[in-house]
Specification:
Layout lengths: L5 H13 L11 E5 L2 E4 H13 L5 H12 L10 H13 L31 E2 L9 E4 L6 H11 L11 E8 L2 E10 L5 H7 L3 H7 L3 E9 L3 E2 L3 H21 L5 E6 L7 H5 L3 E5 L18 E6 L4 H6 L3
Parallel strand pairs: 3-8, 7-9
Antiparallel strand pairs: 1-2, 4-5, 5-6, 6-7, 9-11, 10-11
Helix pairs in contact: 1-3, 3-4
């Protein structure tokens, strides 16, 4: 929050609380929905008033002010700054508010941080699983090894590298300082029919608890590693530590893991061997579908419960 705006914000917070608004209320006419959350005319008026109070304020400062006023925070107590900025942009594009001009030119996430080229291949690793020696799992996001992880995914995964958004973790698995595998975990898609039917949750429970489901977006055994049963062994070890690791980084556990497997390429043998459960196939329309027609191959959906009471925790509460 920028200096000089504390008095304005304190007054507005007291006003909102006296009106019974904790977070974004839904007590008035809804002008749009953002990520399943209704936004009312009273909130839009509140935003307009804030912009008018300081036309030179940056968009980031505005979003932080709103997060403070609405008590909009993540489980780890950090402001939901990026979500709030997305909401502001949606309102701006809908003509409901006029945002101040951006003070910086941002490069889209899909274009920034292009992973470096990885030179050559590592020495071949062949033999039995027991011959590998101790395997080390290291969470490398925001460490000096993240560039290596990104480069390996870019060079050797058939889907290439894509910059995750939101909560995500990256694991590099090594033996004797030699990388053998990579795992990427990120936020789960909000709507996924086979998974939603498997859980049996309502739309409201899904909106509230989708953050408690985690998506295995990339799993790579490096091509020079040829060790039988290694993939299922790594999957088994990974899921045993995943919820604890997520809570350590983000302040909340996760209760269900999911992944997609293209059946035209793979049989999901390692996932099945690690006790993942097949729950159905995608529609082939993708998360941004606007035509209700398939535009990509249908994927097998597999899930793995990370806690015994996962259905209760996902359908009722964390």
């Amino acid at each position: 929050m920028e200096a000089g705006h504390g008095g304005w914000l304190k007054t507005r917070i007291l006003y909102l609380r006296s009106a019974g608004a904790s977070g974004i209320s839904s007590g008035m006419h809804t002008v749009l929905k953002y990520r399943g959350r209704p936004v009312t005319e009273s909130e839009v008026s509140f935003i307009r008033e804030r912009i008018a109070s300081d036309p030179k304020m940056s968009r980031r400062a505005l979003s932080l002010d709103l997060c403070a006023a609405w008590n909009w925070v993540q489980p780890n107590a950090h402001p939901r700054d990026m979500v709030c900025r997305g909401l502001l942009l949606a309102l701006h594009r809908a003509g409901r508010i006029t945002l101040p001009p951006p003070q910086r030119v941002y490069v889209p996430l899909t274009r920034c941080g292009v992973p470096p080229e990885v030179a050559g291949e590592g020495p071949p690793l062949r033999g039995a699983l027991s011959d590998l020696g101790p395997l080390t799992f290291r969470q490398v996001r925001r460490t000096k090894e993240e560039a290596l992880f990104n480069g390996l995914i870019r060079a050797h995964h058939y889907l290439g590298y894509a910059q995750p958004v939101g909560e995500h973790l990256k694991y590099l698995v090594s033996t004797a300082d030699q990388p053998v595998a990579c795992f990427a975990w990120s936020c789960a898609p909000r709507h996924l029919g086979p998974r939603d039917r498997f859980i049996g949750w309502s739309a409201e429970a899904r909106r509230r608890n989708i953050r408690l489901v985690v998506y295995n977006s990339r799993f790579l055994i490096l091509p020079w590693v040829e060790v039988p049963h290694l993939a299922s062994h790594l999957l088994g070890r990974m899921v045993r530590m995943l919820s604890r690791e997520w809570e350590r980084v983000y302040g909340h556990p996760v209760h269900l893991a999911e992944t997609f497997v293209d059946p035209t390429r793979w049989r999901a043998t390692c996932y099945r061997a690690a006790n993942w459960v097949w729950v159905g196939r995608t529609t082939g329309r993708g998360k941004d579908d606007r035509t209700n027609r398939p535009n990509r191959s249908r994927k097998d959906v597999l899930v793995y419960p990370l806690t015994k009471s996962f259905r209760v925790r996902l359908t009722v509460g964390a």
